[in-house]
Amino acid sequence: MSSSNELAQDRTDWAEDRTILANERTFAGWMRTGMASVALAVGLRAVFGEFEPTWVAKGIATIFIILAVYIFWAAQEAACKTLGRLNDNEAHAQPMNRMRILSIVFGFGAIAVGAILWAL
Question: Domain range spanning residue 94?
Fold first, then answer.
């Protein structure tokens, strides 16, 4: 391969590595957004307190819990899809299973928070 082709390949490899790192940052951002949705659901409990009927406040909080679970699922789905199209060169990507496991754990955590909110 000629020197200019090698340089072009190096630039392509580095761009791919930057895309992998950007994908991981985007995944982390969506996970933070999901956690913010869970925090909002918990905060609604504090704001509404002894609001009557209680099912209204709990229902609104549940919407944010469901939204959080969807965000977790969508984040891992998009991140894994993007990661599947890329090859890591110098940057070592997080394994897809790790992203899936994190999303599953966060999702179950959000559902548990929702259950606790309904139990209160």
Answer: 3-119
